[in-house]
Design brief:
mainly alpha, elongated, disordered C terminus
Length: 127
């Protein structure tokens, strides 16, 4: 059992290394300068190097965007909780506005009297 586990682990690492080669390509080796087609081999080397570097840049950008998305996913519930927790602090402003009175001066701009996204003539009944 121990030998088969070791073989499976070795095989899995070999597969992971092979796949990683396609995600993070190695930079090509510098071609020897003795060839008669030196110009073509240098152009091919530069092209392969550019391809490998652009692939690496795309991988880094993709990982950065993935981590940023994970961060937003984790932070969103905490942001909503803080917004919901702040609602009772400004409920009196909404009640005053619905009854035609002006809110205090330190009211945030989204509770301004000029904001009519709701029916200001509605009766508010507190239970």
């Amino acid at each position: 059992s121990s030998i088969s586990d070791h073989n499976a682990t070795t095989r899995n690492w070999r597969i992971a290394k092979e796949l990683a080669r396609h995600v993070w390509p190695p930079l090509p080796a510098l071609p020897p300068t003795i060839h008669r087609d030196h110009e073509d081999s240098m152009q091919r080397y530069e092209s392969e190097t550019q391809h490998a570097l652009s692939m690496r840049k795309r991988v880094v950008v993709a990982l950065g965007l993935m981590l940023a998305g994970k961060g937003v996913t984790i932070a969103t519930p905490f942001l909503f909780k803080s917004l919901v927790d702040a609602l009772p602090d400004y409920a009196h402003v909404l009640i005053l506005h619905l009854h035609g009175r002006s809110p205090p001066r330190n009211t945030p701009p989204w509770f301004s009297p000029n904001c009519h996204s709701y029916d200001s003539t509605a009766n508010l009944r507190l239970v």
